[in-house]
Amino acid sequence: MLLKLIFVVWQILFLILATSAVRNNKHVDTDINVDLNESYQTFQGFGSFICNHNVFYEHKDREIFLEALYGPSGLQLSVIRSSIDANITDCMTFDFIIVLKDRHEIWIQQQAKQKYNVSRFIASTWSPPYEWKSRKGENTGKNGNHLKSEHYTDFANYLSNFTEEYKKLGLELYAISPQNEPEY
C-alpha cells in the first residue's frame, strides 16, 4: 500500500514537471552535461504545499500518508508550504487556529516536524485581509482590487503576527511570501 502510494505520488509529480516544462509543440534536441566537480548552488530540500488537506487530515490512514510524504521509507520531503488565510475575523490578534483548514495545516506541520524532523516551513498569503482591499470580500487582485495604501503597515504587522503565532505552535517559518500569484 505504502509503496503504491509513493509510486502514484511520484507519477503525479513527474507529470506536473513534464507538462510544465512544455511551452509549445516544437521538439528541441538538448544536450545536458553534468560536471560532478563543479557546484553552482546548494539544494536545500524538496517539499509540498499542504493547503486544504481536510481529507488527508480526517482520513483513518493519515499516519501512512505522513510516512509516505516525509518518512524515511517515503519521499522524505523536507519543506512544507502552507497558506495564510485572508479571511480571519480579527486580523491583529490572530485567532486563526479555529479555522478548520488551518488546524489541518498546523497538525500536518507539527507531525512532520516531530516525527520526521522537517524544519523548513514556508507560508504564503493569497490575499491581504479582504477588509483592507479596495473591493472588500474579494480574494482576487483583478479589476483593480488591491491592498489600500493606508493598510500597508497593518498588512506588515499582520504577517509579523502570523509568524509569532506560528512560533508559539513550535513552527519556525523559514520564509513568508506576501503574495501567491502577483498577476491575480
Automatic annotation (TrEMBL):
Its EC number is 3.2.1.45. Residues 101-184 form the Endo-beta-1,6-galactanase-like domain. The keyword Secreted does not apply. Belongs to the glycosyl hydrolase 30 family. Gene3D superfamilies: Glycosidases. InterPro entries: 6GAL-like, GH, Glyco_hydro_30. It holds the Pfam family Glyco_hydr_30_2. It comes from Leptotrombidium deliense. GO terms for biological process: sphingolipid metabolic process. Residues 1-21 form the signal peptide. One of its GO terms (molecular function) is glucosylceramidase activity. It catalyses: a beta-D-glucosyl-(1<->1')-N-acylsphing-4-enine + H2O = an N-acylsphing-4-enine + D-glucose. This is glucosylceramidase. One of its GO terms (cellular component) is membrane. It comes from the Eukaryota. Keywords: Hydrolase, Signal.
